[in-house]
Amino acid sequence: MQNLRLIFLAASLAVLSPVATYAQSISDLEALSPEDRRNYLESMSPDEREAMREKWRAEKAAMSDEERAAKRDQRLAKWESMSDEEREAMRDKRHEKKANRRAKWEAMSDEEREAVRAKRQEEKAKRREKWQSMSDEERAAAKEKMGNRKHAPKGKTRNPQDAGGIAE
């Protein structure tokens, strides 16, 4: 009986091990080198990546304001500790990515572009519906939050959670 339990335990661990590597938190992924992180994310299926993004969004939503501020300060400290060459390399990489997105857009067929536009319109309609379903107090709070983000210093305002995205 003892051997049977051990065999069952080993088999269940073998089955769950891919899930365990998949179920990483934000901090686990941030600890990886950029190359390892890229390889890890590319090894996932699109559905797994989407599930991971949802998990990250949930983790960020669960963070307190102090935790968010600490993360923001940590990113700012990392940026400030970089040399001018490293910053310039990051800017160049960002411009290269932008050019790649533009090239990808221009390489799309008219049908593909129309599908992307339709998806954007659908997302815009969802946001509009959400806005219309808000109470006056919720709208006022949202306006204030967006106003603070829009007019505050750039480094202090870019909160990916507010924008609905993932920190890079």
Overview of the structural elements:
This protein is an all-alpha fold. Among the domains are: 1-62, no CATH class; 108-156. The protein has ten helices and no strands. The radius of gyration is 21 Å and the shape is extended. Residues 15-23 and 162-168 have low confidence and may be disordered.
Task: Please count the helical segments.
Answer: 10
Largest sheet: none
Class from helix and strand fractions:
mainly alpha
Number of strands: 0
Detail the poorly predicted runs: 15-23, 162-168
Please bin the fraction of helical residues: over 70%
Shape: extended
Radius of gyration from CA coordinates: 21 Å
Order of helices and strands: HHHHHHHHHH
Distance between the termini: 51 Å
Mean pLDDT: 79
Range of strand content = under 5%
Question: Layout of helices and strands, plus pairs?
Answer:
Layout: H1 2-22, H2 26-30, H3 34-42, H4 46-62, H5 65-81, H6 84-107, H7 110-133, H8 136-151, H9 154-157, H10 160-163
Features:
168 residues, disordered C terminus, 10 helices, mainly alpha
Question: Briefly, what is this?
Answer:
This protein has 10 helices and no strands. By secondary structure, the protein is mainly alpha-helical. The C terminus is likely disordered.
